[in-house]
Amino acid sequence: xxxxxxxxxxxxxxxxxxxxxxxxxxxxxxxxxxxxxxxxxxxxxxxxxxxxxxxxxxxxxxxxxxxxxxxxxxxxxxxxxxxxxxxxxxxxxxxxxxxxxxxxxxxxxxxxxxxxxxxxxxxxxxxxxxxxxxxxxxxxxxxxxxxxxxxxxxxxxxxxxx
Length: 162
Hints:
Blueprint: E1 2-9, H1 11-14, H2 21-32, E2 35-43, H3 47-60, E3 65-69, H4 80-87, E4 90-91, H5 93-104, E5 117-120, E6 123-128, H6 132-153
Parallel strand pairs: 1-2, 1-3, 3-6
Antiparallel strand pairs: 4-5, 5-6
Helix pairs in contact: 2-6, 3-4, 5-6
């Protein structure tokens, strides 16, 4: 069973002013798919808070997967991609591209999401948008590749095409 962290980035959520529907939905989807939720929290839209949590979960908790939700848009407070970029060691542009391209089939606003995906040590980190609908749609896109991606990050040398 893979260990997962769900990090919600929301100023209002971190103050208890808004229910975290996206983080809860992510946890439900992940549990149903066979993942073990080992960490969950809400942080404000502040680069340092995001960086600290991502580093803690990847370096100390050694989670297999961290999914963030929120902070990927165009407002001045949306800094999740910038924070993530500062701590990842390898980018995975295909995940980012797939989320935007497939999302475009549902809404043209998908191209405005700036979420990124990458690896830190042996942890896969993926930024997802903040709305529950976008989370649901994004998970439909990436769920089929998550186990394979995590296996490869952990060093699985089996041929992919076999």
